[in-house]
Write a structure and sequence with these properties.
The protein is α/β, with parallel strands linked by helices and 348 residues long. It is built from 15 helices and 9 strands. The longest helix is centred in the last third of the chain and has 28 residues.
Length: 348
């Protein structure tokens, strides 16, 4: 029997993307009477709700729910609690999904007896400008995002790959009964923390390399900085929740920043230590220049060079800075024990 699937999508001020997103859902090859679409809105102030209500009046399976707390983990949990499907697929409105997206995920979820399956994330520019193009390129390479398989995997003959996380995710509803819901204090990284819980509990997560999701990156450096700062900021809280460290790629920007800061401070007491900072910075900037030139040449547009370099630098520094401030707030100040919700400026 074809299982009922509930799609849950956190949204807020999405008038630019919401219609194209819904169209990709209506073009799915999965039976339309087996799809429930839950759009969980974080109090949008633009035309998002107006647009959605038009669809709700036409399609009974499109349902708009309120998320007064605005942030993603609250929206996901509202969606899970209101889902009627046996299978739940988390989506993002800033993406384009292939017509076989739902059917492929459901097929492999059952075939592999997996706890979570997902597709490859192809980062695309938000528009045709040089800055959006540079951001999309930087977030598609190992130097930009580490060894996150779903972001950097190239063509492969493998039908599926076991991984530590996937974008968005497709789960049986019973997974949330077994492992709990998303942690609502984690405005960012809630999916990473949840997937680590799955793995720690003996569960399996698989990436389907042939399934491609086109995801729109941030369109300017300010939003890129905010996004990576928040990824870094909530990193220590993830470690606290899991009571362990996770993946090495999530600490490298912070270690790099510390390799600059600590020797400068210690150099005040014994100057030779200061050279460690110079050495670390020199290695980084040589690598930064080399990779930026290489990626610019690959695009056959050398004009992108300074923009790609800036995108790499901003994402690395903002992540490392965010992690250090998060360490102070959560490890030293125990902020998460004093507040139920951790307030941050939304980056979209």
């Amino acid at each position: 029997m074809t299982p009922l699937v509930t799609l849950i999508c956190p949204i807020r001020n999405e008038e630019k993307y919401i219609e194209s997103f819904l169209q990709t859902i209506f073009l799915q090859d999965y039976p339309k009477d087996k799809i429930q679409i839950l759009l969980i809105d974080g109090l949008s102030t633009d035309r998002t709700r107006e647009i959605i209500n038009t669809y709700c009046s036409i399609y009974k399976n499109v349902i708009l729910l309120d998320n007064p707390n605005k942030t993603v983990p609250y929206a996901l949990n509202i969606g899970i609690r209101n889902a009627t499907g046996d299978i739940i697929i988390r989506l993002d409105a800033h993406a384009i999904y292939p017509p076989n997206y739902i059917s492929t995920l459901v097929y492999y979820l059952e075939k592999l007896n997996a706890d979570n399956v997902g597709g490859v994330w192809e980062t695309i520019p938000a528009n045709s400008g040089l800055i959006p193009k540079s951001i999309a390129k930087a977030l598609s390479t190992p130097f930009g995002v580490g060894n996150a398989t779903y972001r950097v995997v190239k063509e492969t003959n493998l039908e599926y790959v076991e991984v530590d996380t996937v974008p968005f995710g497709c789960y049986r509803k019973s997974v949330f009964e077994k492992y709990g819901l998303f942690d609502e204090q984690l405005t960012r990284n809630q999916d990473n923390e949840f997937n680590e819980r799955i793995i720690s509990g003996g569960g399996k997560i698989f990436l389907i390399p042939s399934l491609k999701i086109q995801y729109f990156a941030r369109e300017n450096y300010s939003k890129l900085f905010k996004m990576f700062y928040q990824y870094g900021y909530f990193g220590p809280l993830v470690d606290i929740k899991l009571k362990r460290f996770t993946r090495l790629r999530r600490y490298i920007p912070t270690l790099f920043l510390l390799s600059l800061i600590i020797p400068i401070f210690l150099g005040l007491f014994w100057f030779p230590i200061f050279y460690i900072s110079i050495f670390s910075g020199t290695i980084y900037f040589i690598t930064l220049l080399t990779v930026s030139v290489y990626e610019s040449l690959k695009t056959k547009n050398i004009i992108l060079f300074p923009f790609i370099l800036s995108a790499y630098f901003i994402s690395h520094i903002s992540y490392g800075l965010g992690y250090l401030i998060g360490f102070y707030d959560f490890v030293l100040q125990k902020k998460h024990k004093k507040l139920k919700k951790i307030e941050v400026q939304l980056s979209r």
